Each structure stands twice: as C-alpha cells, then as structure tokens.
Amino acid sequence: MNINIIYSCKDFVIAEKPHDMATAPLLVAEKGTALNVVLELFPEGRNVFGKKSVEHGLVHRLDTATHGLFLVALNQQAFDNLWAQQQSGTFIKGYTAYCINQHNDDFPPCSYRMQKGLKIESFFRYFGMKNCEVRPVALDGSSGKAAIRKAQSKIYETYIDDFCEFGGLRGGASNLDTIYKISCALKSGFKHQIRAHLAWLGYPIIGDKLYCPAEKELAEKHDSSHNTKLELHATSLSFLNPFTSEQCCFSIDDTATFSKN
C-alpha cells in the first residue's frame, strides 16, 4: 500500500503516506487508508480511543492529496499525552510546498507579504458547496462582517520558515511560471490551512485544484485527464516523547519531494 514506516516503538509509529491516499477512514467499514495499513502492522493500536473512535490513535490527519508523515499512538497514555501536546502547541508539523505566484480573486484582501520568517494569523470559515473549501478571515476585520460572522473563534497560525525560487519546471499550470519552494510549520491546524493561507498570500500550491486558479482552469479544460499531484509534503514532526519528555524529531528529505511529471 506504499506506506513507509519511518520509526516505531512500543508507544507510537511514524509513517509516510503517498499522495491521494486517505489518512484515516470516515466510517468503520472503510478500508484502504493509511491508518488501516498501520493498524494491520501494529494491531495493538486498535485499543486506543482517539479523537474519533474510527481514528484510534491517529494524532493528526493529512489531507488525502498531501504526501508525508503522520503519527499513530499505540496505547492510550501515549495518545493522551501527544494529543495534549498538540493542543498546547508543543507538537510541531513541518511542510514543504511548491507554489506559483498567482492571485486568487475568490479570496479576501490580505495584508501579509510573503517572506522568510513570516507568521500568518487568521480565523477560518468554511466556503463553497458543501463546505468543501475554507477561507482565511483576517483578524483586523478587513474580510468583511459576513465573513467574521461565519468564522470559527480560534486563531490559526502558519509560520514561513523559508521561501526561495526553485530551479525546476514541468508541465501543467506551472509550465511558464517561476516555481517557489516554501517551508512552513504549524502548531495546530484547520482544514486545508496551509493550502488556504498560501493561496491568500498569492502563492497557491501546484496541483491544488481548489485554491490555485491556474490548476482549477486546467482541470476544467481537461476534465479528469488533468492529474497533477498536489505539491504539498508533510516533511517533519517534532514533539516530546510521551514518557521520557525527550525531544523527538523526525523528517524526510524535502529536496527529493518535488514531482517532476
């Protein structure tokens, strides 16, 4: 099932999932997710009661289209500790995104400008048919009263650790555009947070048919034949060992993540 076990111990598993595989089932009978594969290998994890019963010890969920690292606790004490770390902001998730510079007219005004060391803050609200998308809502009220009324109450932060031009071109929406490599980190996450925050800044992710106008237009022209991967990769996890409090850091090579097809 293309699941790569990066690390395992008696308390948790770090695994890497491919693009276009769901992290966890939505229903008990659903199979073929990354979590299903991990629990086949580590069945003791089925005894953990997590955020949702069907998710067992899954500490955080990746979008189906996103490739990269996720963590599964194998006992209840480990899950409770890791979940508490995630709520307190000591569980850090690092991502690498490959983007183009393009404004999305469907987004509210953004006062931020892309740069290394930037901290993006916003509320979020659901958007579109069946709430399949999200939109950032600015803290200063510039997104409008209607957006503020619909916004969730929590402030979400995305940290831009690095930002640079990337020396590679390929077909698709990015064919004639400069590609930018953006490294970012989250302490806590909302649905599509990085995808929406980067699009808000004018740097939508390559392959993002929801938030990148060029990709969306190309997908509509080619219907189902346009199959560019979402160039968002969960490349690192940092947290405290739930029993020893030792700092744990796991990562995959972000220099080899860009899909050249």
Plain-language structure description:
The longest helix has 13 residues. Strand 1 and strand 2 form a beta hairpin. The chain folds into two domains: 105 residues, Pseudouridine synthase (2-Layer Sandwich); 131 residues, no CATH class. It is α+β, with helices and mostly antiparallel strands and 261 residues long.
Shape: globular
Number of domains: 2
Number of helical elements? 5
Alpha carbon gyration radius? 18 Å
How much beta, percentage-wise? 25-35%
List strands and helices in order, with pairings.
Blueprint: E1 4-8, E2 12-17, H1 34-41, E3 67-73, H2 76-88, E4 92-99, E5 119-127, E6 133-137, H3 145-150, E7 156-166, E8 179-186, H4 193-200, H5 213-222, E9 232-240, E10 247-251
Parallel strand pairs: 3-9
Antiparallel strand pairs: 1-2, 2-3, 4-8, 4-9, 5-6, 5-7, 7-8, 9-10
